[in-house]
Design goal:
Length: 713
C-alpha cells in the first residue's frame, strides 16, 4: 500500500507541473505581451528583458518591431529606448538590454509595431522581484488545448485501475479486506487529482509550459561550444541623424473673433461649436429697424444741400459780371498808377543797393577793428618780450643774435599795427559814402511815393464799384463752399446709415470651424463685443515646447512626424518656425510645424506628439546601439548617478576563428535609433559584440556567428 501511495504522489506531480511560474503579462491593444527578466530575481546592474508578443489566440506574429524603454518613474538618467532583437530559436520572443542603476521601482514600456497596428504596454518592475521565465510555446492544438488537459487525468485513472487489479490479483479472490482498505485512499487521491487538474486548467497562464516541457526543450538544445558564439558589428564612419519626441498641441492656423460693429439685438445666429463656415458666410444678423428711417432722412438732407449749391452758384455768376464792367473803367487809371509804382520800385532798388554798400562798409570796419585789436595785442606782447630779452642779454642768458631776432619780431608787430589802423580809417570812409547814398535813395523813394498817392487818389472813386462787386463775389463764393460742405456732410451721414445697415449682417473672414459661441440670439450687443470664435483647421499649426538645450540643434525644415494620443502616426511634415525667445520660467521654446489636416483629424487644443529629427550631420564614427551597455555609477549620493557606456571589443586570439573580448569604456553621442555616434573609446574598423555578450567576462574567448556579423552603417 505504501508503494501505491508513492506512485500516486508521482502522478500528482506530473499533472500539477503546468503550475510553474511564467512571466508578467499585459494586454496592448490587439497584442498579448508577456515579460520576464534574467537574472531573476531582479538585481542592480545589467539585465536582459525577454518579451513574448502573440495575438489573441496565443500565436506568434511575423513582422513585429518591439522597442523597450526601462527607467525609474520621475527620474531620468540618460535612458534610451532599446530595439528588442528576436531570440531564436523561440518564435515570438524578443530580448532587449536594460540597466538598473539602483534599487527601487522601475517601469518598462514596451512599444509594439506590427501588422495589427501600434500598441504600448507598461510593466511595473522592482529590484528583488521574481519575474518568472519565458520559453518557446507553440500554438494550441486539440491535443494540447482544451482536450489535451484531460490526458494526464486519463493516464492517472488508468494507473489507478491497474493498481487495483494488481492488488486484487495478489491478495486473491478471498482477500476482500485488503481491497476495501485500498479503495478508500485511492478514491480520495482520484478526487484530489481531478480538483488539481481543473485548477491548473483554470489558473495556468496561456502559453506557459510545464517543467517537463521546459526540461525537454532544454535537453533538445545543443551543448555549448568551448568559445561563446556572439554577433559582431564593425565600427565605421558614416553620417548620423538624431531625433527626439516632444509633447505638443494643435493650434488653429488662423483664428478670428467675430464681433459686432454696431449696436443692435441679435436676430439670427444658427452656428454652434464644431460647425464649419466659409469665408464671407453670414454668421449672424442684427436688428435694422432703426437704421432704415435714419437712412431716408439722410437722403433728403443730401437733396436739400445740393439745391443750395445751385442757388449760390447763380449769385456768384451775377457778381462776376458786375466786376468785369468795373474793371473796364479802371483801365486808364491803373496805367498811371502802374508807372508811379514802377518809379517807387526803382527808388527802392537803389535804396537796397545803398544799404548793401553800407552793410559791407560796416563789416569792413568790424574786420579792421578786429585786426587792429589783434595787432595791438601782438605789439604789447613783444614790448614785454623785448624788455625781458634785454634783461636776459644783460645777464648773458641769451646771445645778441637771439636778441636781434626777437627785436625784429617786435618791429614787425609795430608795422602790422600801423597797417590795421590804416584799414580802419579806410573802412570808416567807405561807410560814410554808403550812408550818403542811402539818404539820397530815401529822398527818391519819398518823391515816387507821392506820385503813387496822387494816382491812387484819382483811382479811388473808380475802384469803389469794383470793391463792392468783389465783396459780393467773395460772399457768393463762400456761400457756394458752405453749400458744398453741407452736401458732403449729408452724404457722410447717408454713408454712415448705409454702413450701419450693412454691418447688421456679420460675416466670417476665414474658412474654419466654430470653436466657441459666446452670445445667444435676442441679446443686445455693442460694437466690439465678441459673438463667435472661428479657427482655420486645414491646414493646422502644431506647436511643441522644446527645452532650451535642444533648440540649438533644430532648424527650420527638419523632418517632423506627428503622433496622436494613441501613439499612431498622423502626419509627416517639417519644422516651419522656432520661437526667437525662451520662456524664463519653463526654459522652453516653441517649435511649430504645419500639417495639412484635410480630413480634420485634429482640432485646436488636441494633444499630439512631435518627433523632430535633426538633419543628417557630418561623417562620424558610428556603431550599432546594441553594442553599448549603459550602467549607473554612484557619484556621491543616492540620487547622484552618472551613466557609463561600455562595449565588448573583440580582438583576434591565437586560434583561427577565435576572438578575445575586452571591456572598454565608450563616450557616446547622439543616437539615430539603431545606430549611435561614438565620440571616444572606439576606433574605426574595430569589431564589437552586439549580441551574446550578457555573460561575458574580460578576456573570454568568443566566436563570431556564421553569417551574422553586422557593421555600422
Amino acid at each position: 500500500m505504501k508503494r501505491l501511495l508513492l506512485l500516486m504522489s508521482a502522478a500528482m506531480l506530473v499533472i500539477t507541473a503546468p503550475l510553474a511560474r511564467a512571466g508578467i503579462r499585459a494586454d496592448a491593444g490587439p497584442y498579448h505581451v508577456e515579460l520576464a527578466a534574467t537574472p531573476s530575481p531582479l538585481a542592480v546592474g545589467h539585465v536582459t528583458l525577454l518579451i513574448r508578443v502573440t495575438d489573441s489566440a496565443g500565436r506568434p506574429l511575423p513582422g513585429l518591431t518591439v522597442r523597450v524603454l526601462t527607467k525609474m518613474d520621475g527620474m531620468s538618467m540618460g535612458e534610451r529606448e532599446e530595439l528588442a532583437r528576436p531570440n531564436p530559436p523561440a518564435p515570438g520572443i524578443f530580448r532587449a538590454p536594460a540597466q538598473l542603476a539602483m534599487e527601487g521601482a522601475y517601469a518598462a514600456t514596451v512599444r509594439v509595431t506590427g501588422p495589427q497596428g501600434d500598441a504600448t504596454a507598461r510593466f511595473d518592475l522592482k529590484t528583488g522581484e521574481d519575474t518568472g521565465t519565458l520559453t518557446a510555446a507553440a500554438a494550441p492544438t486539440p491535443a494540447s488545448g482544451s482536450q489535451g488537459a484531460w490526458i494526464p487525468l486519463a493516464v492517472g485513472a488508468a494507473v489507478l485501475v491497474a493498481l487495483v487489479a494488481w492488488a486484487r490479483r495478489r491478495g486473491g479472490p478471498s482477500d476482500t479486506r485488503a481491497i476495501r482498505a485500498a479503495v478508500g485512499p485511492i478514491l480520495l487521491i482520484v478526487i484530489l487529482l481531478i480538483g488539481m487538474t481543473l485548477a491548473v486548467r483554470r489558473f495556468r497562464r496561456p502559453g506557459s509550459m510545464t517543467p517537463l516541457e521546459a526540461q525537454s526543450m532544454q535537453m533538445e538544445l545543443p551543448a555549448p561550444p568551448s568559445a561563446a558564439p556572439v554577433e559582431l558589428a564593425t565600427v565605421r564612419r558614416g553620417k548620423y541623424a538624431s531625433s527626439a519626441r516632444y509633447a505638443g498641441q494643435a493650434v488653429g492656423f488662423l483664428e478670428q473673433e467675430v464681433s459686432a460693429r454696431v449696436t443692435g439685438v441679435i436676430l439670427w445666429m444658427p452656428l454652434y461649436q464644431g460647425d464649419r463656415v466659409r469665408r464671407g458666410q453670414v454668421v449672424a444678423r442684427l436688428d435694422t429697424s432703426q437704421s432704415a428711417p435714419q437712412e431716408a432722412a439722410q437722403r433728403a438732407a443730401v437733396a436739400m444741400a445740393e439745391q443750395g449749391v445751385l442757388v449760390a452758384r447763380k449769385d456768384y455768376e451775377e457778381t462776376l459780371a458786375a466786376i468785369r464792367r468795373a474793371h473796364g473803367e479802371l483801365g486808364s487809371r491803373e496805367g498811371a498808377l502802374s508807372g508811379a509804382k514802377a518809379d517807387v520800385e526803382a527808388a527802392k532798388a537803389d535804396r537796397v543797393s545803398a544799404d548793401s554798400q553800407l552793410t559791407a562798409a560796416q563789416a569792413m570796419i568790424q574786420d579792421a577793428a578786429a585786426q587792429l585789436q589783434g595787432a595791438q595785442a601782438d605789439q604789447d606782447y613783444w614790448k614785454q618780450e623785448i624788455a625781458r630779452e634785454k634783461s636776459l642779454l644783460s645777464a648773458g642768458a641769451v646771445t645778441r643774435e637771439e636778441y636781434g631776432r626777437e627785436l625784429a619780431q617786435a618791429q614787425n608787430a609795430e608795422a602790422k599795427l600801423r597797417q590795421a589802423q590804416a584799414r580802419v580809417s579806410q573802412a570808416n570812409a567807405q561807410a560814410a559814402a554808403a550812408a550818403s547814398a542811402v539818404r539820397r535813395a530815401d529822398a527818391t523813394i519819398v518823391a515816387a511815393m507821392a506820385k503813387v498817392e496822387e494816382a491812387q487818389s484819382d483811382l479811388a472813386s473808380h475802384t469803389a464799384h469794383v470793391s463792392s462787386s468783389s465783396a459780393m463775389a467773395a460772399s457768393a463764393r463762400q456761400k457756394i463752399l458752405q453749400a458744398q460742405a453741407g452736401v458732403a456732410q449729408a452724404r457722410a451721414g447717408l454713408a454712415a446709415a448705409a454702413a450701419s445697415r450693412a454691418y447688421s449682417e456679420i460675416r466670417a473672414e476665414i474658412d474654419g470651424v466654430v470653436t466657441q459661441r459666446l452670445i445667444s440670439p435676442g441679446t443686445l450687443v455693442n460694437p466690439g463685443q465678441t459673438l463667435l470664435r472661428i479657427a482655420q483647421i486645414s491646414p493646422i499649426r502644431l506647436q511643441a515646447s522644446v527645452p532650451a538645450a535642444d533648440l540649438a540643434a533644430i532648424r527650420p525644415g527638419d523632418p517632423v512626424r506627428v503622433f496622436g494620443p494613441d501613439n499612431g502616426l498622423l502626419f509627416s511634415t517639417s519644422v516651419r518656425s522656432l520661437t526667437p525667445a525662451v520662456d524664463p520660467t519653463t526654459r522652453t521654446g516653441i517649435v511649430e510645424a504645419i500639417a495639412p489636416n484635410r480630413d480634420a483629424r485634429l482640432v485646436p487644443g488636441a494633444f499630439v506628439t512631435l518627433e523632430i529629427g535633426a538633419r543628417t550631420g557630418s561623417p562620424a564614427l558610428m556603431v550599432a546601439s546594441r553594442a553599448l551597455r549603459f550602467r549607473g555609477d554612484p557619484g556621491g549620493g543616492p540620487l547622484a548617478v552618472e551613466t557609463t557606456a561600455t562595449a565588448w571589443v573583440a580582438e583576434p586570439a591565437g586560434q583561427p576563428g577565435e576572438l578575445t573580448v575586452h571591456e572598454r569604456r565608450v563616450r557616446a553621442g547622439a543616437s539615430s535609433g539603431e545606430m549611435i555616434r561614438v565620440l571616444d573609446g572606439l576606433k574605426e574598423g574595430e569589431r564589437v559584440v552586439v549580441s551574446g555578450g550578457d555573460a561575458l567576462h574580460d578576456g573570454d574567448t568568443v566566436q563570431a556567428r556564421a553569417g551574422q556579423e553586422g557593421a555600422a552603417q
